[in-house]
Amino acid sequence: MPHEDPDARVGAGRHRLLTLLECAGPLTRSELTERMGLPGTTVAGMVSELLRARLVVERETPARGVGRPPRVLEPAGPAPVVSLLARRDGRLRVAVATLSGGLIAERSRPVDDGKALDAPLLAEAARLLRSALGEAGISPPRLVAVVVSVARPRPHDVDLSALGERLEKPVVPENDANLGALGEAEFGAGRGLDSFVYVMLGHSVGAGLVVGGRLHRGASGFAGELGHVQVQEQEDGSLCVCGGRGCLGRHIGTSLHDFVHRAYAARLSVPEVLSLAARREPGVRRVFADLGRMVGKPLAGLCTMLDPAAVVVDGSLGAAGEPVMAGIREELDRHAAPAVADSVRVVAGELGERAELLGAVALVRRWTLDATLPASRRDPAVAAASALAAAR
Ligand SMILES: [Zn+2]
To answer: Which superfamily does 190-350 belong to?
Structure first.
């Protein structure tokens, strides 16, 4: 019997209610109740909470014919926005999206990949973000929070105080694969799935675990670190940045770029690699199938232990996703417990390059909604992130 967490159900319900209003509003209370498919009193309770949190407003519509004009609910004010900051392929990138997941602005500028995320770089990030907001005509109060995508297993170890002070906004670091998982859970291939494993391979090697409808971070925040699963058993396996030996990430490299590079004399860019895969170039496809098998073996063990509904593979791989998924499937069929191998699906992420941005939206949305709950009912992970942001 799956364990049902009533808090998760309420949280997910309000989430859905707000999303419904953002996507299909304005709606009357009865239209909303019908669309939610829940008892009227439950929906009324959720509406009250959202009204109190000022996330939703209720207004009268112009009278039509006789009788009282209907009142409708809609999201409050101009759409609040969330920003994602990431460092990728030698560029510092900012993206801005509404809480309903609509992309508003994207900007980037070159940055030295080896440069630490220090105060000068964070000052540059703040300037880039301000110019992106200005260009899109978004006033600073509409920005709810900034999420910074980091590859570190314990993102909260990253000091982002310089950015928070400059922007006077909560700045939340989150692991890149966790963001991808949150994005797919809320907007993509993971919608409606109680549990799944998201596998990030495009820019770094990692996984995000969704268990019981929630992101599972683990006791020390290390959950899902696929790149640090030991695959080389010798005592002298190459040492990894995590302090372990023989980690999967050491075999693959830090990105698919590094992995594919081995098969080619020239240093290919990510778009070049993906276009070779799209043209079904046999060499590239074989390399990607190998990559799938390499991550597939540890995933088989994880699937046996976790019994997820699906393995959702990084949608940013584009045409390269197909041989990767075939490689993963092969290893799941070979090494996972047969009952699990039979039931787990291997599917492509639906959000492509946008998975992390939409994950940032999902994180902040959840966090905003959670702040309306009594402390005892908040998601501990989200409450910790809010407390951390408030302390800065
Ligand atoms: Zn490691």
So the answer is: ATPase, nucleotide binding domain (3.30.420.40)
Of the pLDDT bands very low, low, confident and very high (cuts 50, 70, 90), residue 10 is very low
Level-2 CATH architecture, domain 6-75: Orthogonal Bundle (1.10)
Average pLDDT, the chain: 85
Is the pLDDT at 326 greater than 60, yes or no?
Answer: yes
Q: Ligand 1 centroid to 197 CA: how many Å?
A: 19
The count of C-alpha atoms lying within 13 angstroms of the C-alpha of 317, restricted to the half-sphere facing its C-beta, is: 30
Q: Who's near 355: CB < 8 A, 6+ residues apart?
A: 179, 180, 183, 184, 188, 314, 315, 316, 349
Q: Residue 95 Cα, ligand 1 centroid: separation in angstroms? A: 30
User: Which overall architecture, per CATH, does domain 81-178+373-391 show?
Assistant: 2-Layer Sandwich (3.30)
Question: 285 C-alpha vs ligand 1 centroid, how far in Å?
Answer: 26
Q: Which of 26-30, 136-140, 177-181, 236-240 has the lowest mean pLDDT?
A: 236-240
Q: How far is the CA of 375 from the centre of ligand 1 (A)?
A: 36
- Same fold: 81-178+373-391 with 190-350: yes
Token readout for 111 is 């940055």
Domain ranges of the chain: 6-75, 81-178+373-391, 190-350
| CA 215 / ligand 1 centre spacing (Å) | 21
Cα 158 to ligand 1 centre (Å): 18
For residue 241, the CA-to-ligand 1 centroid distance in Å is 6
pLDDT digit string, tens, across residues 153-182: 777 778 888 898 899 998 999 999 999 999
- Residue 246 Cα, ligand 1 centroid: separation in angstroms? 7
Q: How far away, in angstroms, is 298 Cα from ligand 1 center?
A: 14
Measured CA to CA, the distance from residue 132 to residue 106 in angstroms comes to 7
Distance CA 123, CA 344 (A): 45
